[in-house]
Design brief:
The protein is mainly beta and 352 residues long. It has no helices and 29 strands.
Length: 352
């Protein structure tokens, strides 16, 4: 991918695409009501999490743990977005790192309630990865870099993400006390988006100029390949080591995949010419993401027992617009993409 860091949040839509975005008051998580299988006997509940008092009606649920604690961002009364944690009541503002007064976002939370994310400081010029176990702690950057981004956190409190290096490109990192550069697959850049209990990390890395592949790293970065194309990204991994994400097919389309030694095309909710993305997988092997169903329209899906199912057909208490991908920034409707799925819950993952 070889994209240099841009100091403005919101860079590289393809990389930061995994985030639930919502307007008009209905952002939430999907709670699993029954065993994690896609069938007529399973239903999902939509929960509206709300907003910060006085802020614009914009919020995003990005991560969830087994207790149903949710993290994400919401607009503040002052304007900028800030990270929140939701534990069943009003959204709790996590604030920003010391010296920061602009914005923050939380992306991952483990079962101990530790949070990972990023906070913009210095008037919006730089953003640093953080972990939060009651107090927001700056994780710093890799040597020579000025920015970092925390994307996920595992049970041990190890944070993974991406950080700028001296060349100006970003590299995947893991941080269990010290930030470690995970390198690349021979190219210039990389980023980490998921980590499981054993510490296996997944993400993307440049291979050659113009190509990037999903990787899995259990001590050495391994190329997961593609579905016949030139590109792939892994967004999540469960404790069995099954990675999920999207990969380009030989026909040039982006399809969701799962990989536990062999990359499997999960297909789409409609035609093979539409795209799909898998964003999360739980320890039961249930996968969530989104898929095209018609030109310009995407729906959230759940994939289990070899079947991809439209979550609009399985979810109760949906807002009138359902679960779909917002196509225009000006659209004032509720939107949600299914993403990180834990043992008993589903939600989307982050963008910043």
């Amino acid at each position: 991918m070889s994209t240099k860091f841009n100091s403005t949040p919101g860079l590289r839509s393809r990389l930061m695409l995994f985030g639930a975005a919502a307007t008009a008051g209905v952002v939430g998580s999907l709670s699993l009501a029954g065993a994690p299988v896609a069938s007529a006997s399973v239903s999902y509940d939509f929960t509206a999490l709300g907003f910060f008092p006085g802020g614009q009606p914009n919020s995003s649920a990005n991560g969830i743990n087994d207790s149903g604690e949710v993290v994400g961002w919401a607009s503040t009364a002052a304007g900028p977005i800030q990270a929140f944690i939701y534990t069943g009541g009003p959204l709790h503002d996590l604030g920003t790192l010391a010296g920061g007064s602009y914005s923050s976002n939380s992306y991952g939370i483990n079962n101990s309630g530790m949070v990972a994310g990023s906070s913009v400081i210095s008037g919006g010029s730089y953003y640093y990865a953080f972990s939060d176990n009651g107090t927001m702690a700056d994780l710093g950057t890799l040597p020579g870099g000025s920015n970092s981004f925390g994307a996920a956190i595992n049970a041990s409190g190890t944070v993974v993400g991406q950080a700028e290096v001296s060349t100006g490109y970003e590299h995947a990192f893991s941080d269990g006390g010290t930030m470690t550069d995970l390198g690349t697959l021979g190219g210039s850049g990389s980023a980490a988006f998921g980590i499981n209990t054993s510490g296996t990390v997944v993400g993307w890395a440049d291979t050659l100029p113009g190509a990037f592949h999903a990787f899995s790293d259990s001590g050495t970065m391994a190329d997961l390949g593609t579905l016949g194309g030139s590109y792939s990204i892994a967004y999540g991994i469960n404790d069995s080591g099954t990675a999920v994400g999207w990969a380009e097919t030989s026909s040039g389309y982006e399809h969701a995949f799962s990989d536990n030694g062999t990359m499997k095309d999960l297909g789409t909710l409609s035609l093979a010419s539409y795209s799909s993305v898998a964003n999360g997988i739980n320890n039961s092997g249930t996968i969530v993401g989104y898929s095209g169903i018609s030109p310009g329209v995407n729906h959230a899906f759940v994939y289990a027992n070899g079947v991809m199912s439209d979550l609009n057909n399985l979810t109760v208490n949906l807002p009138g617009t359902g679960l779909w991908k917002r196509q225009m920034a000006s659209t004032r409707t509720a939107t949600l993409w299914a993403g990180a799925i834990m043992t008993t819950h589903l939600t989307r993952k982050p963008f910043f």
